[in-house]
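Can't paste images in this forum, so I'm doing it all in text. The chain is below; anyone willing to post the predicted structure tokens underneath?
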Amino acid sequence: MGYSARYHAASLAAVFLALAIGILIGAGLGDNLLSDTEENLRESLEADIDAARGEADELRVQRDRERAFATRAYPALVSDSLDDRRIGVLALGDLPQDLSADIESALEPTGGELAQVAVIRLPPDAAGLAANLGPRFAALEEDNGAVEDLGRILGRQFVAAGGNQLERLRDELLARSSGEGGRLDGVIAVRGPHGELEPEQLARSEALESGLVAGMAETRADVVGVERSGIEDSTIPFFARFDVTTVDSVDLTSGRVALVFALLGAEGSFGIKETADSLLPDLLRRPAD
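Text version of the structure:
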């Protein structure tokens, strides 16, 4: 019995010793294996990163070349294409400086004259407008339909440069304006964000905007709604309601080409966003007047 007990005790001790040794050896091997795996993974990731950086650098060079080509080719594509045409800009609510610069850059080589720039004051002062127009428009404060009807009249008069209403309401209607005025051959329309307005103010603003764009669209002028490519809340769906041509990326060379051709009569929705039918119009030459 004594021998058996000592034998079992010795056997158990040997087993535990073997287990301990195995654990130590396994831990060491595991650490080495983990270390090797980690090193291999690190080297692989570094190689992938280097390859991606190289590809990104190559794409950046290609992009810069394409931009340089587009910038230099643009004047040749549109040179004098709007010669003798008088172009106006009508901004609904706001005309950001960067967008204004985009429009001026687009028109610069075309020979077109930027004859009028006007920014509509929003929300409109219905009481002030009514006071200057007399009994015919007395319902402006209560009826947004009357506001839209007035906007339609003013849109036509903005293009035709004639009409008593536009002249009488200039101070109440326009936040700012510049240019010589006169009859316009084309209009570039811009719509700014409304900001925080009361529901009544928002409805009145939208009524005036709708009337203005609809009125301009009823004339023989080429009306184009534009915006920059990076704008978050797109204005293209608003302009599309009135069946006017739109360009959603006037800050890009392709958008500027599309804008010029749109002012020559091309129809559609052009640009890089989901609302666009195509990048550029099919129009390749100036249509006959």
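The first strand starts at residue 86 and ends at 92. The mean pLDDT is 85.
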